Structure formats: C-alpha cells, structure tokens
Amino acid sequence: MTLPQTNFTPPFNITRASHLVFTCRDLAASRDFYTEVIGLKVTDETATTIHLRGVEERAHHSLTLKKTKDQAACERVGFRVFTEDDLDKAKAYFDGKGIASKFVNVPFQGRTLHVSDSAGTPLEFCARMKTLPRVQTRTHEHKGASALRMDHYQVLVPDVLDAAQFYVDLGFRVSDYICVGDERIVGIFLFRKNNPHDMVFLTRSGPRLHHFGYIVQEMHHVVRALDAAGNLGHAGSIEHGPGRHGHGHSYYVYLRDPDGHRIELLLPAVQIIDIDDEPMRHDVKGGNTNLWGLPPPRTWFEDTSPLAGAKIKSPAVEGDPFTLEKYLFAQRAEAPSEAPLKKRA
Amino acid sequence: MTLPQTNFTPPFNITRASHLVFTCRDLAASRDFYTEVIGLKVTDETATTIHLRGVEERAHHSLTLKKTKDQAACERVGFRVFTEDDLDKAKAYFDGKGIASKFVNVPFQGRTLHVSDSAGTPLEFCARMKTLPRVQTRTHEHKGASALRMDHYQVLVPDVLDAAQFYVDLGFRVSDYICVGDERIVGIFLFRKNNPHDMVFLTRSGPRLHHFGYIVQEMHHVVRALDAAGNLGHAGSIEHGPGRHGHGHSYYVYLRDPDGHRIELLLPAVQIIDIDDEPMRHDVKGGNTNLWGLPPPRTWFEDTSPLAGAKIKSPAVEGDPFTLEKYLFAQRAEAPSEAPLKKRA
Amino acid sequence: MTLPQTNFTPPFNITRASHLVFTCRDLAASRDFYTEVIGLKVTDETATTIHLRGVEERAHHSLTLKKTKDQAACERVGFRVFTEDDLDKAKAYFDGKGIASKFVNVPFQGRTLHVSDSAGTPLEFCARMKTLPRVQTRTHEHKGASALRMDHYQVLVPDVLDAAQFYVDLGFRVSDYICVGDERIVGIFLFRKNNPHDMVFLTRSGPRLHHFGYIVQEMHHVVRALDAAGNLGHAGSIEHGPGRHGHGHSYYVYLRDPDGHRIELLLPAVQIIDIDDEPMRHDVKGGNTNLWGLPPPRTWFEDTSPLAGAKIKSPAVEGDPFTLEKYLFAQRAEAPSEAPLKKRA
Amino acid sequence: MTLPQTNFTPPFNITRASHLVFTCRDLAASRDFYTEVIGLKVTDETATTIHLRGVEERAHHSLTLKKTKDQAACERVGFRVFTEDDLDKAKAYFDGKGIASKFVNVPFQGRTLHVSDSAGTPLEFCARMKTLPRVQTRTHEHKGASALRMDHYQVLVPDVLDAAQFYVDLGFRVSDYICVGDERIVGIFLFRKNNPHDMVFLTRSGPRLHHFGYIVQEMHHVVRALDAAGNLGHAGSIEHGPGRHGHGHSYYVYLRDPDGHRIELLLPAVQIIDIDDEPMRHDVKGGNTNLWGLPPPRTWFEDTSPLAGAKIKSPAVEGDPFTLEKYLFAQRAEAPSEAPLKKRA
After folding, report:
1. How far is residue B94's CA from residue B111's CA, in Å, rounded to a whole number?
2. DSSP conformation letters of A224-274
3. What is the average pLDDT score of chain C?
4. Cβ under 8 Å to A: D residues 146-165
5. What is the mean pLDDT of residues B297-306?
6. Is pTM, for the whole model, over 0.95?
7. In chain A, N or C: fewer CB atoms in 10 Å?
8. What is the pLDDT of residue D181?
9. Do the chains contact at B278 and C218, CB–CB below 8 Å?
C-alpha cells in the first residue's frame, strides 16, 4: 500500500474543518452539555435549532443542533473554502467528475454547496458565515472547558486509502498514517490548515462519524470541564481519558453528548507547514497505543454517530482493537493479588 | 454504629504521617520510578538501601527502599511525634496498655519506637530526623511530578471502628467517614495535621497497605509525571485516574511502583482546624463514587502491599465494590452501538 | 538581636489567622472586586455589611466589609482559638498581664474577645462561627481566583521583636526571619497552623496593616483573576506581580481593593510541623529580594490600611527599601539603548 | 491612512516566520539562557556557532547564534517559502523590481536567498532545512519554558505603511492594526500562517528588531522558565510581564538575552483563516494598553537589536509611549499613603 500523493494545485481551495450539523432528541439536555461542560457559546436559538461557537471563533457557528424525534445523527460535515469563487470551482469540479452536488441556503452562511465524499460522508462547503467578535479573552464569562474552536473530524470508513484519495485530490496533505503489519495502512490523518488536523480516517465499517474535536487552551480547562460534568449530572458522559495519545499527538479526553455524539477535547496540536515536514508512519503492533492512559473501552471503538443518508459498508479486513476490557482481563486473569501490575502490552 | 470520640488530651503528641519503609526486589527499577516519575530526591544510597524525600521536605527521608529477595512488603508505617519527651510518654502509654513496643536505632532518625496498632499495622515513631535544605523552588532540578511531601496512608482492615479507636485515643480527629446502608461505617479518614489526611481505614481483609499519598503542587505536575511514565517505560504503572474523588476530596492518580506498591499523587487537600469543622458523613449507594473519572479497576480494590508480620483477618461483612469491570460490562451489555452511554449508576 | 523563644505550653490555644473586618466607602465596588476578581462567596449581606468566605471555608466568613463615610480602615484582625475554654483562659491571661480585653457580640460568631497586641493591632478571638458546606469542588460556580481560604496577615510595626514576643508567648513559632547587616532583625514570619503563615511583621512605622493573603489552588487561578480584573475595570488594582518571592516562599500577586486595602493571592506554602524544622534566616543586602519578578513599587512599601484606634510610632532605624522606581532608574540611567539590561542588584 | 490591500495571488509563496540569526558576545552565556530558561534544544554546536530549535520543531534550527567581538546584532530575519520553485520566483520578482538579492549557502539549509525589505530589514528565504524528529512529547527532557516553536518578529520602522506594503504585496494579510487619533496607523500585525502572527511593525526609528516570539504550551511553562531564570542567575533578564496583552492578544513575558536581544514567550494565538475574518482596528488613547499587567518600562520601548547593515531613519511623528516609569510617577505623585491606587489611565 502506498500513500496517496498530495495535489499541490488543487481545483479549489478548502481551508479548514469548520462546522458540524447534528440532530438530537433533547435540545435542552444538549444545550446544557455544550454550554456548561464544553463551554460553547449560543449564538442563535429557536425552539428547534441551536447554533453554537467556540470562544475564539469569529464565525457564527461551528456546531448546529437540530431537534429530532428520530435517531440522532450527523447531518453535515462542514468545511470552509477560501472565496466565493472557490465554491464555483468546486461545483465545476464535482460536475466534471460526475459527482452530484447542489447549492443550498443555510442560515447565517453564504452560498453553501452540498456534496458527499467518496466514502459517502455528507459534506458542505461555504466561503462566508456571519461573524461576531471573539470572546476568548473574556474568561470571566467562560464555562467548563472554554472550548476555543472546532478542530477536526474522525470518520470510520471501510477503505481509508479510497477515502483519503478524495481529499488529497483536493489539496489535503497527510501528516501521519498508521500501519498494521508490513504494509496495511489503517489510519490516515489529513490537514489543510497549519495547526492540524482537519480530517482523520480509520478503518472500520462506515462511513460513520467517530468523533469531532475542539481545541482547549490548557489542560486545566479540561479539568474544569470534567468538574462541571461531575457536578451537573454529566459525569457519565466521560468515556475515555484524560490521557495522552501516542504518535506525538496531544492530550485528550473523549465525552459523549446526551445523544451519544462523541466530542474530543484536545490541546493545540503541532504546527505543520513546511514541505519537508513529511508524513510520519506509526506502526501498531497490538496493545495500548497511548503515550499514557488506559486503552479506550469497547464503546469507543464501536459506538458512532450515523451520517445522514450514508450507506454502511464493511472493510475487507476486520480489525481487532485492543480495548480497555481486554487490558483489564489480562491484568486480572494473570496477576496475583500482591504482585505488580503486568507490564502493559 | 457511632464514630469514636476524639481524645483532645492525648497521652502523647503525634504530629503527622511522615515516612514509610518498603522492601523491593529491584532497587534500580524502583529508583528510576520514584526519581523520574514521582520526582523524589535521593538523599542517601547504598547497595541495599535508598532514602528519598519530596522536594519540599526538610526531613531526610519520607520513603526508604530496601532490597529484598523475598516478596516486596511494607516494613514500617512512620509517624512523627513532636518531641523526644513524647516518645517517652508513648512508651509509657503502650507499656501501661500492655502493648509491646521497643526503641530501635534507625539511620538518620532520632530515637525510634516500634509498635503495632490494634489492627496489626507495624508503626514507628520518632521526633527527630536529619534535616536538609528544602529544594521546592529549584524547579529546574525537578523531575516528573515534583512530589512535594508525604501526605497520608490508606490501610485495609477488617474492622475500621476498632482500628480507628486506636488512633482517636491518640488524638486523631475524624474528617470524613463512609457509610453503607443506614449505619454501617466502612471507611474512616483520620488526621492530626491541619492539611489532612494522615491515616485512612477502609473495610476489607487486613491489615494490608492499600496506598500512600504524596502531594503535588498543581495538576500539570501530575501530567508531567504521566508523560515521564509514558516515555520511560512506566506507562503500565498507571492504574487509576487521573480523576477527582467524590466527598469533596482532591484530584488523584494512582500508580503502582515496580513492586506493585501503590502511590497516589494528589493535590493539596482542604484545611481542617476548627473544632466546629465536624466530620462529614458520606453515604455510598453503589455505583461510581468519583466526582468524575471511571471507577477503579479490580486490581485497585484487590491488590495491596503486605504489612510485615501482620496477620490477616477477614471482615464480618464482605464488600462488593463497584469496579471498572462492572461499569464497562453494564455499558456494553445493554447499550446499542449508536445510543449514548448509559447514565452512570 | 536574638529571636524570641517559642512557648510550647501557651496559656491558651490560638489555632489560626481566620478573619478580618474592614470598613470601606463603596460597598458595591468592594463586593464586585471580592466576588468577581478574588472569587469570594457572599454568605450574608445587608445595606451596610457584607460577609464573605473562600470557596473552601466552612466558616461563615473570613472577610467582613462594613460601609463607612470616613477613611477606610481595618477594624479587627481575627484569630481562632480552639475551644470556648480557650477564650476564658485568654481573658484570664490578659487580665493577669494587665492588658485590657472584653467579650463582645459579633454576628455569626460565638463569644468573641477583643484585645490589642503589644504593637497596638486590634485583635479578636473566637472559638466558633456558623458553618456552611464547603463549595471548593463546585468549580462551575467559581469566579476569578476561586480564593480558597484566608491565610495570613502582614503588619508593619516599629519594633518587630517586641511585636513578635507577644505572639511567641502565645505559642506562635517563627518560620523565617529577615536580617539586615549582621544582627538587625527586620522581619519575622510567625505561625500556628501547619501550612504557614499566620502573622508576619516587617519594620516600618506602625502598627499598620500591610496586606492579608488568600490561598489559591493553582497559578492559572491567579491568571483568571487578573483576566477578570482586566475585563471588569479592576486592572488598576494590580500593584505588584505576578512573581515569586525569594526565601523559599510562594508565587504571589498583590492587588489593592477599591479602598486601597491590599490583598495577596498566593499558592499554598510549605508545610512546617516538625520541631527540628527550625527558623530560616534570610539576609537582605539591598536589591531585589524576589526569586523572579520586578521589585515592588513605592506604593507597596508605603501604602497601608490604618488599624482602627492604633497609635503610630516610628522605628528606631528607618529602612531604605529597594523599589521598582529605583530599579528602573538604575536600568535606564546607565544602560545605552542597545546594551543588555544591567544585571540586577 | 488606509491599510494596504492583501495580494491574494502573490508572486511566490512565503509560508511562515521561521528562523533568526544573531551575533552575541558570550556564546556560553547565551547557550545557558536559551537552553535552561527558554528550553531550546541545541542541534549543532561549534566553537563559534550554535544552532537551536524549539521542542516541537522538525526544522533543524530556528535560532542561530554566532560569536562576535563587536556589538551584538541580528544578522538575518528568516522566512520559509513553500518550494524550491518559490525561491526562483522570488529571485525573478526581486530582479523585476530592481531589488538586490542573491543566493547564498547556509549550513543545514537548502538554497537560501538574501534580500532586504523596503525598510531595510535583512531577510533570508529558504524552502528546505535539515529535519529532525520532534521532541515535544519527551517532556522529561524539557527545560525552562519548553519553548515549542518560533512564532513572529516585531520590527520598529519609521513608516509602518511602507514597511507593510512590501509584505502585503507578497501575500501577507493584516490581522490587526493600531491607530492613534483618527487616522494615523502606528502598528500593523501581518501573517501568512493560520496561527498568526509572522511579522509586526510598530512606528519608531528603524529598522530595528524589537523582539521575536516563541510559543509555549501553557502558562505554567512561563512560570517554570522564570523559576529557572531566578535560580540560574538570569532573573535580571525579565524585562516586562508576565501579563496579558490588550487587543485580544495572548499572555506574554519579555526577557532580554545576555546580549540584550529581546524574546517574548507567549501562548498560542487565535487562528485566523477565513476571508471574512477581517483586520481588527485598535485605537490607542494613551495609558496602559494591556488587558492586565503594568505598562512596559522605558527599556522595552527604547532598546532593540541592531539589524545588520540597516540604515536607521526616524519617523515623521515621534511617539510618546506610556511607560512604566510614567505610570509609577503618576501613582506616587498624587496618591496619599493611605488611599487606593489611582485608577489607571
């Protein structure tokens, strides 16, 4: 297997992962979670829809919650393109490829183009959104994690190379990739902005949205968020962490919102700009891949947000992730009660 | 059940939990763990013994490691008394009670009195220890958690009221206690110093040393310790946390040293001084008792350090702790893959 | 000069610095400062009086603000004694010494004894105060610095040895003292609680209250307080810092409340308990005494809160403090524009 | 005055501020400062030259120190271009404009182009540099501030609009600008990367290098750096801060290296990508422009690093900065000793 090659003269200019549209069953519960624990700010609110943004964002919204009576899902995965002209180039590009796309009207956004990626993820692109003053310095008005800004998406797909190809054709670069055995690439991290990432693909049946990440400024903001979760009835939302990823990645915690949508809070990632800052290969050999922190539980590997309208396919090879459950079983099945913990796998 | 009543005119003046003596099978591995991850400073070192202290401590040692070829154990649980005179009063007190005690010579310590508490925990008391300049401001020489000072011990005993009575007779106050059902007290937190705790008893077969705690200054010191653990081959030592205790207690992480001895790193606790700052009752009703963070794994409930020479007895009623394993099973046994996590018990 | 010797069998048991009574000219402005910047909680409030406490305190108040039309002042400097019996012993002790004292009624407090120390500082002692549940874990309700608890007082007096003698007679220990030249002691730090300090004396005309200190948990709480100050019109209240004291002391920032009363926010100090943890001598030789941070400005040396009813006397030898103004003058008077800063004195 | 308009189709692709070349008189002293206080890593070292990088940087160096016996200066201000092809385009562009430029050989760098900007700042561009593995997760090997990466330069120039025009022609965008009175622009912040800034111009005689900034991860890294400075004889290097800038900018501290070169440590700035994230105007009306923290001292306004070969010109209108000295004089000249601090200007 070889990595897809970046197209340095993309047909149009996507600049960043920017906003998500979710459906949820209990708007009040979700509002409480995102404002009190995550610390997002409500910028618009009706009986059926809430728009939220991070405290650093000038853009009107990075998360839109819509009330549903059906199963909660992710309706759209949003990216920014740089100019209005890029939207027209995008339309022409997709038309030329025979990929269905259409312009739609979305409140608080400029012209918005809907399309699905090669894996079936429902995307939308826009160049403009209503702006508001940043409030990142008004820390006396912040709550919970004081989440700064939307950072990235992780989507599970049956074929990560195929999924990634769609994006590298559009100018995304690969920062990291994960291999199992000699040659099988099972994970690819893609970015457009300098402080990656924007889109991450891992191999499992899909397309399904695994999680989205918001940047927080310092680790104590994570702690404050978890205190808020504990005090306000959201302690059960903490699924995994706090911990530190392996592969040179950041500190994290994963929470599940009241509908089960998974959010990662993470510290700012490294900066990647230079052309000679080449993709890093990480080989997974079983065992815990974190720098520290227990492995993720089964729910982390299995549970996802459905992507509206996407048709699920299975991968050629099913993975066998090293879960927290396996880790704990190995600890206890073999360790006598007064011996040290086993060295981790 | 009623709490034992504090004796405000104790027979002698114990001032604080101060030092532990452990045996371990691989001195070099333990040295690496305690200096690089926990951040203790070596104050004396021979082929068979290492003395360590926290960066804030003027006392020569708060942890003594002795090489053994046998099973690693805790040899002594140390407390300070205020003056040499208190040692003589202590001897007279134990003699009067018919409790065996004897003076012994311990390197770097003044006269030292050995005795066992009513549960069988091997104790030692001294009034003086060699002193050294504090190094807490020399942060450029700090490593890992920069652990400041020894804080408290937790010992498992079959009868917490009986165990606590020994200490309240000696002037210890109760800060908190844990009840199951209407009246059964299963945990007691005891203190002499203003920034508790000094000794904690929980109900299980014992006496066995569950853990000892060192204070760290800020949460980022915990993070730095865990980074060090991850980078230096000690990631498997992380057993539980980081998280925040319930009951108004502090942030924590529990690690297991190379011999399985369990250390808690925690932030400074509240200050308890006033006589009207009365014991807090906490009722445990099953489920996770943390303010946030997953429940402790089975190893946390089951594994301990043996106390040298102690005879183990079982409690009248066996507990049924809510383990991480039970929590995960409950999550997964019932939750469909695209539903939210269950509300925690 | 020699340090006064601690009286280890004091006539009654003072346990800690506990509460202050201030007058202020604009209650609303002071309320805003103490709740939004410092993070204290209002526990009682009338048109003329506000009671506040730190988020960790069970005691009803550690700061009482009373409206005045006169010059703002400090009315009382409060300490806790351990029991009601200690109050009676205190009364007998002062009577025996011919020191005027009287019992008074103070809202929310048990019996309260008024007396002045040998320097003229108006004190009050009580053993009991109404209690309330701690709120230190409810961080989602915290503001500004989330100040935990009252810590210590610093009083300027013309004769520090005389002032300290009053306290060491009552069982206070000396943790540190500051010398100028060979033998002149100009500062003494005194404590009763394990996590000092309680009372600090520096040599200047007095008695005048220089500042009082509240403990904060971590440095980022200081930063949040300063952000709040900046956003809410209190940026001018920041007089000195953030910085780190020399002499092994903690991180600090000094602010002036709307009436000019000076508050220090500081991180938890070291623990001092052992009898062999002997007083540390620090020799001041001119220049900046901070471990880092610019020297304090003239206002920090000169401005104080008057102590109600106290008669001001001058010291035998006037000091000549190294101010920020002197430091800056030395920098600029001699350094050419493209040379490095001068090495600090 | 109006802002120069961004050229969205620049003649070649500059990606970021990347590296500086300084001369210094005492290599050992500078090495100590940059490794122990700032936390940079030495990547190459000879008797006359030291190359350093931040712990997150893959690029071989972001700071080059060369021994000199003359006055210490800044020899080159370095930027990255994206590809080798961009270097050729750059050469052609400067040739076309009649601006002298030449290719030179620089160790560890690919082809490097030397040129001066319109203000006379000596620049260099390269597309490639030797790479090394990032070490940002190896926190046990970090020191001082653990500085992550070079961020931006601030240059004093007599005409900020003229200086900025050179850069906007090359594709730089304006994030912020500072006005005095109705129309006079005295400061311009320019960026190419998403996490600005790259180049900042302020109006004073010049061109002179005012400072360069390195990003640190969290505020406690600043504190650790200042502890190191205090302990290792560099306390006098702290010139201004810690504080928080106004204008929505970040937390900062400014230090002076042993030759007087000024370094800012700052937390990650906001992300600016969207085309509708338009330049922010800030009006300066005298007084302290910080959100909090005392104003900068005169040295901060006056002292600079000479730029090799640059010819200094004065601005049309001389500024009258609000210095710490003025602030302190205003405080003390008018405030009686028991009154509050004056409200800051």
Report:
1. 16
2. HHHHHHHHTT-GGGEEEEEEE-STT--EEEEEE-TT--EEEEE--------
3. 95
4. 148-149
5. 96
6. yes
7. N
8. 84
9. no
